[in-house]
Write a structure and sequence with these properties.
Layout: E1 15-18, E2 21-24, E3 30-33, E4 36-39, E5 42-47, E6 51-54, E7 56-71, E8 83-98, E9 100-111, E10 114-118, E11 120-132, E12 134-138, E13 140-155, H1 157-166, E14 171-173, E15 179-181, E16 186-201, E17 204-206, E18 211-216, E19 220-222, E20 226-228
Parallel strand pairs: 1-4, 2-5, 3-6, 4-9, 5-9, 6-10, 9-11, 10-12, 11-17, 11-18, 12-19, 17-20
Antiparallel strand pairs: 7-8, 8-13, 13-16, 14-15
């Protein structure tokens, strides 16, 4: 039996395009996730609180489960096992970041509190400027996880006779006169395995002749990102 697992929905980006584009809040944050914002000339983000820009994610999950069982008459005369069963589970989960993108000729980001960017591409033909209390720009991670578990059960004639010899009380007489017994099966389990590979997806800031200007009242923190002017 092969059972495919459902696939998670992909990142669905919002796309905004204009000649000049201003996004402004008077009370709350500006939140952008896995989206594309493009201005031919001026792109301005002005927030009463924070500007939060982060990557979206595309995900996939593939899983298979296979189970078999068989009973062999040869096991009654000592040829092979009486009964065997196997269960096999294999799976893979992938999580891939989709950077948010901001593009324009000139880009300005102004927040009364903080600018937080994780998984973002900011590209200006001329200049990029940002002002806030704190400015935090970070990368994000892609993950690829493989997991598996395997189980095998084998019961031989020796298992049956040995179990009854050790505990005759396992024999039970049914109402129809037949005799039945409960057998402690011999089981081999392979320990569940799980491994995850992590890769870094960079945030990128790229400006033209006007350069990049970031001003923070407190801290500017940038983690292994790429900047180009």
């Amino acid at each position: 039996m092969l059972v495919p697992a459902p696939k998670p929905p992909p990142n669905i980006a919002s796309n905004l395009t204009a000649n000049n584009l201003t996004i402004e809040t008077t009370k709350e944050d500006i939140n952008i996730t896995g989206s594309n914002i493009d201005a031919q000339q001026q792109l301005s983000l002005n927030s009463a609180k924070d500007i939060n820009i982060k990557a979206g994610y595309d995900g996939s999950l593939n899983e298979s489960y296979h189970k078999t069982s068989s009973f062999s008459l040869g096991g009654l005369v000592g040829i092979g096992p009486l009964y065997t069963s196997t269960e096999d589970l294999e799976g893979r989960i992938k999580k891939t970041a989709v950077n948010s993108t901001l593009s324009g000729n000139n880009i300005t980001l102004n927040a009364n509190n903080n600018i937080n960017a994780a998984g973002v591409d900011i590209q200006a033909d001329n200049s990029i400027s940002g002002t806030a209390k704190d400015i935090n720009i970070q990368n994000v991670n892609n993950t690829d996880t493989h997991y598996s578990k395997h189980k095998k059960v084998k019961v031989s004639l020796a298992d049956v006779l040995g179990t009854i010899a050790k505990n005759p009380l396992l024999l039970k007489k049914e109402s129809d006169g037949k005799v039945s017994f409960t057998l402690a099966t011999a089981t081999i389990d392979k320990e569940a395995e799980r491994s995850t590979k992590t890769t870094v997806q960079l945030s990128n800031i790229d400006a033209g002749a006007g350069g990049i200007s970031l001003t923070a009242n407190d801290n500017i923190q940038m983690t292994n990102m790429q900047t180009t002017t």
